[in-house]
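User: Fold both of these, please.

Assistant: Here is the first one.
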Amino acid sequence: MVMGDMEMNTDLLIIGGGPGGYGAAFRAADLGLDVILVDHRPRLGGLCLHAGCIPSKTLLHLTQLLDSTRRAERMGLRFAEPKIDLVAMRYWLRQVISSMAGKLMSLAKRRGVLVIQGRAHFSGAGTVRLEGAEISGIKFKQAIIATGSSPRPLPGLVFSPDSRIMDSTAALALTEISKTLLVVGGGYIGLEIGSIYAALGSRVALMEMKNRLLAKADADLVGPLQTRLVEHFAALHLGARAEGFTETAAGVVVRYTQNGKTAEMEADRVLLAIGRIPNCDDLGLEHTGVTLDSQGFIKIDEQQRTSDARIFAVGDVAGGIMLAHKATRQGRVAAEVISGRKIGFDVRAIPAVVYTEPQIAWCGLTEVAARREGIAHAVQRFPWQDSGRTQALGSFTKLITNPADGRILGIGMVGGNTEGFIGEAALAIEMGALAEDLALVLHPFPTLAETEDEAEGSNDNAGHILPKGDA
């Protein structure tokens, strides 16, 4: 790396310090490349660490503790009513984030990755100018865009710190627990944050324009969660579209349509969680050969290459499934391609987990996708209440297989701690395992992991298999 008063040179410039960015930086440095990473935050982690994935999962851990103490009373174990200290919770959350960010910075320093705080804008072939940094620009041989995404606002709506209409970042700041909260959006972000606020004392209502929650997951997996939310949320409004918001001194009035009729409701605060948009508007892409798709995401190929030979893109900014672990893998792929290795992003089973109570997890082909695409498939299920480790009503594991040879195409599960064994499911799919292969794995008893092989249906528990249901 050649350092000057105003400009620097590098083999690889990475714009964005989230999982895709630091994943690419660490791998590229390990492969011998000279790496500079630019991010507007002073430390690595991106939105995921500082205001997204980690804060939400950390707070969900607290709410699950609350739920566990309340359920323990039915088992004969009684606790005093817990006291919720928001100041202490925010302090603890900041400590968690600070510790993780510090570890990432140490890993970057150990590898020789130079992290620069600032904003990068492409200014020509192989160059960027920097704002808010100690240097004015960087010349690069290759670049990776890993700038992530932002919450999608409604047309004409701009999120602001003093507004009662929050995006996910503002909601996770946990400045107060309002008496009433309306969540607009039935995806995993809305459900997770809504669950946090409900556990902490808010009366939470949820509005979703589709007639079901979690549209990308199979409906049978969502069923047990929806049943629980009916009990714990103040209301679920499905098939309802938010049309407008009016802030008042007391709260927010929401105008919406449902079943062809227009109505209004009021809440102290509103969380808007209706999707995400790519962070690429202010990158100076007009000075590059990078092209965007119809939704504004950067177009890439299986090697993460854009239409500009110098530039790659990874993570949310390139669209598709927006998950941190996917971005990290894409970052590693891009780094290896830049280093001359023949590799591509060819993951068959990207695991997804919704950290609600109960949790939902799936990977590989979903049942609804198999039907939509006309893929031959068979479905087998094992209800968890037949396991010695749970009494959770409605929880189950399902296998989606090729009826011709029994090869596993997809696995889904709903219940407690699905995060703990969805990885085994992904491994089975990636290795091309048959359902009978999974059944031959000897899982310890009693554990929930055994429900994966029992869902195969070829063992003594075949009688527990449920008939194929609707997705």
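And the second sequence with its predicted structure:
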Amino acid sequence: MKNIDFLTLDGRSLRTFLVVLEEMSISNAAVRLGVTQSAVSHLLDKLRLTLGDPLIVRAGRGIVPTDRAIALREPVQTVLEGLKALTDERLFDPAIGQLEYRIAANDFQRDLIFPGLLRALATEGVDAFFRFIPAGIPATELLRHARCQLIVTPFPPEGPDIYQSRLFDDQVVCFFDGGVRAAPASKEEFCAAEYIEVRFDDDETAMQVLHKTAGLDLKKPRLSVPNFSALPAFLEGSDLISAQLSLMGIVSLRGFASAPLPFETGTVTMYMAWHRRDHLDPAHQWLRKRIKAFVDGIA
């Protein structure tokens, strides 16, 4: 058996390996890392030589990880977390250097919070870069596999390595085109109405909040759309309704009529969730505080 000289391993190669695993594309990994494809390939070759395994191999037009690569994912993440922790006690000034964050949020949460927050940061001279990915009903692996560093969602993933914090509470209301129809006046009228649902790529639906809290017997939705931003085009000029959080009235559904639901429902809480690797990182602590302060001003 080959004796591996662990001292030849370096954080940059390990980070590149993880990003390639996450993206399953050399070109996408290069874009995300801000380097050339040849640089990514060079670092992978260096790691292959050290570990004695091809790690990533071609399969048709794409690439796939070897069994060894899959087994190394979590140990490599642990090593990088340890290296990162060495700098966690450093003084942090958001006005010095560049900040970069990957955030999972559906378009409602993204549009509600981050445009205004980014304008405020730009005014303060903070050089911050954000990459957003859809959250859907987020799985724990989004954080564990470092696909993102923060999730904003009413359905935070759970686990011993996952932290969460309440952002705000809201109520589900009924949105509709007030020039075409009135709000449903009873639970029966609501359940009989033609409605639009938002159904995410993981086949979960935003309407599950109502199913859980009110036990509705809803008919099949007239329309299912993949994100909240698609709602206005279908609501306008139609007799359709859509049950969404009231704060959507200041983003995607601005200008549409809304009314309380004609039955009792529970409060919906929005959370931030993050992995323990970022829990004590000063830059991430700072961002979470800024998000909370911004939301407190609008919710």
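The chain has three domains: 6-85, 98-168+270-296, 172-265.
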